[in-house]
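Take one protein record:
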Amino acid sequence: TKKRTEAISSILSKLCDAIVHLDANLEIAAPAPQLSALLHIAAHGACLSGRNFLGFLTEDEQSRVQAMFFNAGDGSEERLQDSACACFRDAFGITVRCQVFVATFENLDGSPSFVVGLNEVEERATSSDMELE
């Protein structure tokens, strides 16, 4: 499983803006400096470890994205799921629309773990853009 996780992480790191490793509770399991950069979070990426991934999504996206992790199959197989778009909030409260890729792996204890790739898919509105509206 470790070699497969590393292989998928390597592939996604070449294709995506950010890679995030999650445990069975959808908590960030490893330093995530790319996620910090993508969402303009000033804290070092290691500080994100242990934080719930769903907390970075807009409220209306959280249940839909959670279902993406757990509703595709019975959870007993390793798989790369289809991608979906989801909206995150950056440190300034601006919506960041991303394509989300999820690879699921089964740990030795039978619990799932996930490698998530994120690609920003459209330009963000800046504060000056919002003032014009």
Remarks:
- The CA atoms of residues 98 and 121 lie 5 Å apart.
- DSSP finds four helices and five strands in the chain.
- The chain has a mean pLDDT of 83.
- Strands lie at 18-22, 79-80, 84-89, 95-106, 112-120.
